[in-house]
Specification:
With 345 residues, the chain is mainly β. It has a single domain, classed as Beta Barrel (Porin), CATH 2.40.160.40. It contains four helices and 19 strands. It has a 14-stranded antiparallel β-barrel with strand order 1-2-3-8-9-10-12-13-14-15-16-17-18-19. A two-stranded antiparallel sheet has the order 4-7. A two-stranded antiparallel ribbon has the order 5-6. 38% of the residues are buried.
C-alpha cells in the first residue's frame, strides 16, 4: 500500500504545471549513457544504472559492487571539435548506502575572439586572441535502499560554465559562472513479479546483467535544480536546466537464453514553456545474459520533426560492460560509447 501511495505522489508532482521560461546550460539535457541513448533516452527507472547520477540518484541504492564508468560522444558530428565526456565512480557501504562521484564535461576547441568590429585586431596583426569554451559538472551522490525494493537518492553538484574568459567591450564581467545544483529521486523495483516469466537458475547465472530485474520498476527524479544563472547582467538571469522525469521498466521474460525489457520515460523540462517535452521509449533483448540488442525512439511532443530513432548494442561479461549507440538527433548521425568495470567488494 505504501509503495502505491509513493508512486501516486510522484505522479501527482510530475503533472503539476510549473512556471516556464528558457533555461541555460542545455548541454545537461544530453544523455551521457550509450545504453540509455540506444533505448530512446529512457533511463530513470533502470536499477543499478552506472549513470544513475545523471538520470536518477536513487538508482545507486541497490548497488553491491564498486563501479567505474566512462562515456564519450560528439553530439554534433559535423563539428568534430565539440565533445562530451563523463566519468563516474560509485562505491557501496554495507547498511550505509552508496556514494558516487561524477564528472560530466563538455568542451570545444579554441575559438577566435570577436567583437562588434569583427575579429580581434590582435588576431590579425599579432598573436590571435583565442578562448576555449568549456563546461563541467562535478556531482556527489548518495543513495540508500529503504527496503528490499524502495530506494531514494540525493545529489549536489557544482556547475562551471566558461563561455569566454575575456570581457565583452563596454560591459563589465566576463562569460564565466559557477553555481550549485541539486537532484533527488526515488526508485521502486520488483513490482508485480508474477508478470515476468522466469526460468530456473543454471550455470550461466554467474554471468549476469545486474540491472535486469523481474516485474516492473518505477522511477521518478528531479534534476538540476538551483538558482538562476547569469554571466554579465544580473537582470538577465536564466533558469538552470531543471528536469522532471517519470519512467517505467517492464521485464516480460528472464531466462538464461533470452531476456527482454520495455522502457518508457516522460520528460518535462521545468523552465521550458511546454507541459511535456519528450516521451522516451525503448526495448532491449539480452541473449545469454551477455549480448544486448537495443532500439528506441525519442518523441519530441512539441516539434515532432525533431523526434529521432536510436539503436545500439552492448556486451556484458562478468565485471566488464561495453555499450555503443547510434542516433540522428541533429544534422548527421553520430556514435556514442561507454564502458564500465564492476567489482565485488
Amino acid at each position: 500500500m505504501k509503495q502505491n501511495l509513493l508512486i501516486l505522489l510522484c505522479f501527482s508532482l510530475f503533472i503539476t504545471e510549473l512556471y516556464s521560461q528558457t533555461s541555460t546550460a542545455r548541454f545537461l539535457y544530453w544523455s551521457p549513457s550509450a545504453e540509455v541513448t540506444a533505448l530512446g533516452g529512457a533511463g530513470v527507472a533502470i536499477v543499478n544504472n552506472s549513470f544513475s547520477a545523471y538520470y536518477n540518484p536513487a538508482g545507486f541504492g541497490f548497488n553491491q559492487k564498486l563501479g567505474i564508468t566512462s562515456s564519450f560522444m560528439q553530439p554534433f558530428p559535423s563539428f568534430g571539435n565539440t565533445a562530451q565526456f563523463m566519468f563516474s565512480i560509485s562505491c557501496p557501504f554495507k547498511e550505509l548506502g552508496t556514494v558516487a562521484l561524477t564528472l560530466n564535461s563538455y568542451w570545444m576547441d579554441a575559438q577566435l575572439r570577436t567583437g562588434s568590429w569583427g575579429p580581434d585586431t590582435y588576431g590579425i596583426l599579432e598573436e590571435p586572441k583565442l578562448f576555449k569554451p568549456s563546461n563541467y559538472q562535478i556531482k556527489a551522490s548518495y543513495s540508500n535502499a529503504l527496503s528490499g525494493n524502495v530506494s531514494i537518492g540525493l545529489s549536489a553538484s557544482i556547475l562551471r560554465i566558461v563561455l569566454s574568459s575575456s570581457g565583452t567591450e563596454s560591459e563589465q564581467g566576463n562569460g564565466e559562472v559557477s553555481t550549485i545544483l541539486l537532484d533527488a529521486g526515488v526508485l521502486v523495483k520488483d513490482l508485480f513479479n508474477m508478470a515476468t516469466y522466469q526460468s530456473k537458475a543454471d550455470t550461466l547465472d554467474n554471468i549476469t546483467n545486474d540491472n535486469i530485474h523481474p516485474g516492473i520498476s518505477v522511477g521518478f527524479s528531479l534534476l538540476n535544480f538551483g538558482p538562476k544563472i547569469y554571466y554579465i547582467d544580473n537582470a538577465q538571469k536564466d533558469p538552470s536546466p531543471s528536469i522532471a522525469l517519470l519512467g517505467f521498466v517492464y521485464t516480460p521474460i528472464i531466462t538464461s537464453t533470452i531476456s527482454a525489457r520495455i522502457l518508457m520515460d516522460f520528460e518535462k523540462r521545468i523552465y521550458d514553456s511546454n507541459k511535456l517535452d519528450y516521451i522516451h521509449s525503448g526495448a532491449e533483448f539480452i541473449l545469454y545474459k551477455m549480448f544486448s540488442l537495443r532500439g528506441g525512439y525519442a518523441a519530441n511532443i512539441i516539434s515532432p520533426e525533431l523526434s529521432y530513432p536510436t539503436f545500439g548494442i552492448g556486451i556484458n561479461y562478468k565485471f566488464i560492460y561495453a555499450n555503443v549507440s547510434r542516433y540522428k538527433k541533429y544534422l548527421l548521425p553520430t556514435w556514442q560509447f561507454d564502458t564500465k568495470i564492476s567489482l565485488e567488494l
